[in-house]
Each structure stands twice: as structure tokens, then as C-alpha cells.
Amino acid sequence: MQSILHNFDFHCHSTASDGSLTPQEMLELAVEAGLTQWSLTDHDTIEGYRQLCVGGPPDSLQLIPGVELTCDWHGITLHVLAFGFDSEAASLADFLKLQGQRREERAVRIAEKFEKKFKIEGVYEQACRISSSRLPARPHFARLMVELGLVSHQAEAFNKHLGAGKWGDVKLFWPQLEELMGAVSGAGGVSVIAHPFHYKMTATKLRRLLDEFQAFHGHGVEVGVPNTNAGQFGWLADELRKRKLYQSGGSDFHGKVTPWARLGKFPSLAKGVPSIQELLSAS
């Protein structure tokens, strides 16, 4: 579907997770793009959001607390966006602490495999340098491969080494969806299933996910998201109308990692489906 410019973006990433721009650079870009509502949704961390709270956004921009959380749903690694939560809530803090430990464990295991594969030492520390954190993700290892001349570009790194089923695709024991939803609800947050067609589920399985998500007090689904075709868009809009769920949208911008993306640019939202913007504005 054709992408258009919106005045909000509820899905993007900074160097606090796997993006290439710092939280402050992302804020400046959001202002430059003319956004009036914006949420930085780094993977399993709100450190980037905390940094932005120190100086605060300009009056023209409403900064909404956000994060993209990872969980397991019947053997599928699922991402759930959470917004408008109390960033000091114990339930969310405990959950994020465990997520950080899980991500660090995975990074160490990928580094060990990397060293064995290419006979290189100090891989974990080099990946930490690239990510500016102790929690490097696969894109950071991909960038390291390019830096070391092992591949010509990051796509090649994923195709040969880090993608699904490759040696660098280290699986983790992620929490169950119910646990994630409890942490978000305990913090007073709004929850949205991220990029629903990314998981390549059948229509029957996706309906089952929507039913269980709603039973756990989930609020909505990301409809306006890149790489969604017209058929998927229409089907999902109908399913949300039936369930009276909200819709959300975002660019999934990662900076230089996604040079084709732009903050605020993603497909239109569906007609006749309430927007998560309304829910966040009312809270």
C-alpha cells in the first residue's frame, strides 16, 4: 500500500536498542518531521525514553512513553507495543530487568558462536561498542561483520549467518504473552500487537491471537505499518471492527538501518476503526 505522511509515529527505534540514531537525534527528527504525537519504542528498554524526559520535548510535540516488548505465543516470537504506561511502575521495571538479562545472554551466545565461526576474539565487546550498550542485537553483529570485511553488507550477514535458521539465530526463552500483558496492565499501559503480518500466521491463527490478546485486555493492532498489502489491510480492518479493537501506525524507523523509511511515513489507517491516538489522548 502507498505510504503517506502522518502527524504521529508510534513505532521507531534509537541506539538504545537497534537503531542508528541517538534518542536525542530521534527527537530532533520527530520535530523536524512535524509530528505532534510521538513514541520511541525501543526493544525491551525504556532507557531512550528516560533520556528524552530529562530535557523534555518542545511544546509542539507530545512525547508518549513507549516500548516494543518481546514474548512467546505458542512457539512464535511476538512483539507487542506498549504506550502511555507509568515508567516507574514495579511490574514493568521487573519485566524489563528480566528482558535485559535475556537479551544479554543471547548476545553473549551469539558472540561465542561468532568467535568460533571466524576465529576472532573480543566479539562481544566490539558488538557492545557498535551498539553503545551491553545489549547488542543481531543488527549490531551484522554491522560488525561488515566492519571486519566478512560480508559486503548487512543483508548478506543475515542471509548467510544471522537470519532464521542460521548459526547466529540464537533462540531465547521469552516470557509468555500473558506475563507480558500483566506487566503492561500493571503499569497502566495501552498494548498493541506490532506488525501482525510479520509472523506469517494463517488467518485462523491470527484470529486466535486477536482473541487471546483481547482476553488479556489488549487494546489494538498495528494497521498502518510498512509492507502491508491491500488484502491484508482490508482483512485486518474487518477483524478489528468486529472486536471493537483500536488501530495504530508507525514507520518502524531504525535510522540508517532502514534508509527507505521516514518518521511519520506509513500506510493510511483504516476507516471506521478507532485510532490508538484517541485512547492515548483520553488517558
Structure, explained:
- With 283 residues, the chain is an alpha/beta fold.
- It folds into 2 domains: 3-95 and 177-282, Metal-dependent hydrolases (TIM Barrel, Alpha-Beta Barrel); 99-162, Orthogonal Bundle (DNA polymerase, domain 1).
- 42% of the residues lie in helices and 14% in strands.
- It has 10 helices and 10 strands.
- The strands form 3 sheets. Strands 5-6-7-8-9 form a 5-stranded mixed β-sheet. The protein has a 3-stranded parallel β-sheet with strand order 2-3-4, with no helix packed on it.
- The longest helix is centred in the middle third of the chain and has 29 residues, at 90-118.
- The radius of gyration is 18 Å and the shape is globular.
- The relative contact order is 0.17.
- The model has no long low-confidence stretch (mean pLDDT 95).
List key phrases describing it.
single chain; 283 residues; alpha/beta; TIM Barrel; DNA polymerase, domain 1; 2 domains; five-stranded mixed sheet
How do the helices and strands line up, and which of them pair or pack?
Layout: E1 3-5, E2 8-9, H1 23-32, E3 37-38, H2 47-55, E4 62-63, E5 66-73, E6 76-83, H3 90-118, H4 123-131, H5 138-147, H6 154-162, H7 177-186, E7 190-193, H8 203-215, E8 220-224, H9 230-243, E9 246-249, E10 265-267, H10 276-282
Parallel strand pairs: 2-3, 3-4, 7-8, 8-9
Antiparallel strand pairs: 1-10, 5-6, 6-7
Helix pairs in contact: 3-7, 4-5, 5-6
A few lines on this structure:
With 283 residues, the protein is α/β, with parallel strands linked by helices. It has ten helices and ten strands. It has two domains: 3-95 and 177-282, Metal-dependent hydrolases (TIM Barrel); 99-162, DNA polymerase, domain 1.
